[in-house]
Amino acid sequence: MHATALSTFRFSANTCIPQAQPKAQGAVTEQSPGTEVMTDLASVKAATIDPHISLDQAEQAMIHQGVRSLFVVSGFPCVDGLITLADLVGEKPMRLVNERHIRRQDLSVADVMTPLSKLDALDYEELKSSTVAQVIATFKKLKHSHLLVVQAATP
Question: Measured between alpha carbons, how far is 9 from 106 in angstroms, rounded to an integer?
Fold first, then answer.
């Protein structure tokens, strides 16, 4: 089968091609829809890291990407878990160093991440009808700073 090439064109000088602009967002209040405080990974690429990376490299990746959490992915597209800045600099690494009698630099992301099986998730359908106040209440109840939101969640 022979494919025909597509037609191309060139822009004239001084042509303006506007860059994509994020939707302007007003002030978020407790009465705002819960979806206003969600990062939609259907429109934003998820920040990820390999589970075998060192804690220092994970921290540098967070700084470089401007995030405080990374999805841990050993085999695309499946998520193994989540690692947060608190996981990297909190008590967990020091506890593991003492328990295992190893150096901190010997720990990997896999050692301190929260595995997917221990992450709380919320069904997107429920989030769509919620308020920011309800999302905050959920974070407080669970003592989490992150919550996965998925479509068609099953218990």
Answer: 54
Query: 77-107 burial by CB neighbour count: b if 16+ within 10 A, else e?
Result: eebbbbbbbebbeeebbeeebeeeeeeeeeb
Q: In this structure, what are the phi and psi dihedrals at residue 150, rounded to the nearest 5 degrees? A: -130, 155
Residue 128, SS3 per DSSP: helix
C-alpha to C-alpha distance for 86 and 13, rounded to whole angstroms: 50
Residue 20 to residue 18: CA distance in whole angstroms: 6
> Class assignment of domain 45-117?
alpha beta
pLDDT tens readout for residues 72-112: 999 877 889 999 999 999 999 999 999 999 999 999 999 99
List the chain domain ranges.
45-117, 120-155
Residue bearing tokens 């595995």: 115
